[in-house]
Specification:
By secondary structure, the protein is α/β, with parallel strands linked by helices. Helices cover about 30% and strands about 25% of the residues. Residues about 5-25 have low confidence and may be disordered.
Length: about 190
C-alpha cells in the first residue's frame, strides 16, 4: 500500500509538471479541448456553440438564431437586428420576445426575400436597410411598424405582398422601383 500511494503521488506530480509545462509553452485548456474534440467529435459541436456565445457576448449580442435554411439573425444591445446569409427569409422568430427592442433592421446582401410577417408589430423599428439581393417582400412584412419613417425599396424588388406597410403611421416616404411588377392589396393602408 505504501508503494502504491507513493506511486500515485509521483504520477500526480508528473501530471502537475506536464500541466505547468503546457502553461510555460503557451498551450492552454482550449488547445486541449480542441484535441479532445478531434478524438470525440460530439464535443466539437459543443465547443463551436460555446465560441459563438463568447463572440456574441463580445459584440454586445442580446439574442441570435436562424430565420431560414442558411440565414441567421442577431439582435445587439443597441436594438439593431442584423440578418445575414443567403436565400429566403422565413417567418419572424424574434418578434415574440424582442419586437419592442428592435429599432433598426439591417438585411445583408445575399438575402433574396423578406418573409411574410417578418417584422410584424415591431413598433420601435425606425429604419430598414434592404439590399439589392432582395427580390420580393412578403405579406404583412412591416405591418404595424408604427415608427418606421422611410423605406427605399431597391431596384431588384419585383413584387410586394398584401398589407406590407399596413398601419405604418409614421411612414412619410417610400421609393418604389420602376420595375416592380406587383404591389399587393392594402400595402399602404392606414
Amino acid at each position: 500500500n505504501t508503494e502504491t500511494e507513493n506511486e500515485r503521488v509521483i504520477i500526480y506530480s508528473d501530471q502537475e509538471a506536464e500541466n505547468s509545462d503546457e502553461e510555460d509553452t503557451g498551450e492552454n485548456s482550449s488547445d486541449t479541448a480542441v484535441a479532445e474534440a478531434e478524438i470525440h467529435p460530439e464535443l466539437n459541436e459543443s465547443l463551436e456553440e460555446e465560441e459563438t456565445v463568447k463572440e456574441d457576448a463580445a459584440k454586445g449580442v442580446v439574442e441570435s438564431g436562424t430565420c431560414g435554411d442558411n440565414i441567421t439573425w442577431t439582435l445587439d444591445e443597441e436594438g439593431t437586428l442584423t440578418i445575414s446569409g443567403t436565400g429566403d427569409m422565413k417567418r419572424h422568430p424574434w418578434t415574440d420576445d424582442y419586437e419592442d427592442a428592435i429599432t433598426n433592421v439591417i438585411i445583408e446582401s445575399g438575402i433574396t426575400s423578406i418573409g411574410n410577417c417578418a417584422f410584424y408589430s415591431c413598433n420601435s423599428v425606425t429604419s430598414v436597410a434592404i439590399p439589392e439581393s432582395v427580390i420580393s417582400i412578403g405579406d404583412y412584412a412591416f405591418y404595424c411598424c408604427e415608427n418606421l419613417t422611410g423605406v427605399t425599396i431597391p431596384e431588384s424588388i419585383t413584387s410586394m405582398g398584401n398589407y406590407v406597410f399596413w398601419d405604418c403611421f409614421s411612414l412619410t416616404s417610400v421609393m418604389i422601383p420602376a420595375k416592380a411588377e406587383c404591389i399587393g392589396n392594402y400595402s399602404f393602408y392606414g
